[in-house]
Design brief:
The protein is mostly beta strands. Helices cover 0% and strands 51% of the residues.
Length: 162
């Protein structure tokens, strides 16, 4: 489809799936209410502009796999035991992932973001699989900064209290 796609829901279980080879020509904006929500951008799905997801409290599942996004990718989920997998995606802008309090699992394996990757996992016992080339990761009270070193195969990291 050409143009923007916007979806706004109320409380309850909400689902959005962009199937293989499906195209949104410009921006995709999802505003999902409280409840267990599921969002999937499946292999070879494409969004020409930015993707913005904001979900309320509840155990949310977000999967962005082998998708191409022309602009920024912003994923914000509320309190709950959330699973966010943004793997093997290509993002023309920055990736920003934020989760509320709860035990969250966040995986950014093999995602390439031209503008870097920022993850804030919120409070809780969180699991993070960072494979971003550069960006900032925040797991509760500590912060991990990763910046590209002189070689594309190396990164420098530092941990500091926030």
């Amino acid at each position: 489809m050409t143009g923007n796609l916007r979806m706004k829901t109320k409380d309850g279980e909400d689902r959005y799936e962009q199937t293989t080879n499906a195209v949104v020509g410009s921006d995709l904006v999802l505003a999902l209410g409280n409840g267990p929500n599921a969002v999937a951008l499946n292999p070879l799905a494409s969004v020409g502009g930015a993707v913005t997801l904001k979900a309320g409290g509840g155990d949310d599942l977000v999967a962005v796999f082998l998708a191409t996004i022309g602009g920024n990718l912003s994923l914000a989920v509320g309190n709950g035991a959330n699973t966010i997998a943004c793997t093997s995606a290509t993002v023309g802008g920055a990736v920003a992932i934020r989760a509320g309090a709860g035990n969250d699992t966040i995986d950014t394996t093999n995602t390439v973001a031209a503008g870097g990757t920022t993850v804030d996992a919120g409070k809780g016992t969180n699991t993070l699989v960072p494979r971003a080339r550069r960006g900032t990761v925040r797991l509760g009270p500590a912060r991990l900064d990763a910046r590209p070193a002189s070689s594309a195969n190396h990164a420098s990291c530092s941990v500091s209290p926030s």
